Amino acid sequence: MQNNTAQLKRSDLSLVKDLAYRIWPVSYAVVITEHQINYMLDLMYSTKKLEKDFDEGQQFYGYFENEKLLGFITFENNHPSNRQMKIHKLYVDTHSTKKGIGNTLVDCAKDYAKKTNMNEIVLNVNRKNPAIMFYQKIDFVIDREEIIDIGEGFVMDDYIMKYILPC
Question: Which residues pair with 154 in a beta bridge?
Fold first, then answer.
């Protein structure tokens, strides 16, 4: 597959927001309630929050086909002292799964991690999310469980998964 990834600019964040608002109601319908989906979208994908993440150093990459954003990933060197990168967001349009887009986006994060001398990549994934299998296929392993109170009576019931970069 041709690599159609690009680092996103601050001006591209509305594309990320729009795609998240299309993906989440479909992808999470069997995992969390509609009320929690709407709450988390407002919490994590408001223009103000995305701009804050961007301004604080998260890297945003997108996958494009015919100039249309089909997927995105955000990450940062979360713990540079222990050489750990964190993937914050990774989503692919529900009509474009199984095309290798997720792999391509994770490869962007892996390349960035290597260039910046990170040892491992970590991410959170809901314990009921079928994406766990995707991450396991690309050599992420479940490290531990974590429950995060996100307000309004909601929690994120997650696995922390990690990938150790080859030396």
Answer: 151
Residues whose CB is less than 8 angstroms from the CB of residue 83 and which lie 6 or more positions away in sequence, other chains included: 117, 118, 119, 120
Residues 6+ apart with CB under 8 A from 135: 123, 125, 161
Please name every residue paired with 83 in a beta bridge, in sequence order, or none if there are none.
none
Total-model pTM: 0.94
Give the chain's residues under pLDDT 50.
1
Q: What CATH number is attached to the domain comprising 43?
A: 3.40.630.30
Q: For the chain, what is the domain count? A: 1
Residue 28 three-state SS: coil
Domain span including residue 52? 5-164
Distances (CA, A) of 41 to 6, 47, 65, 139, 141: 24, 11, 24, 28, 27
Task: Return the H-helix or E-strand segment holding 153.
Answer: none
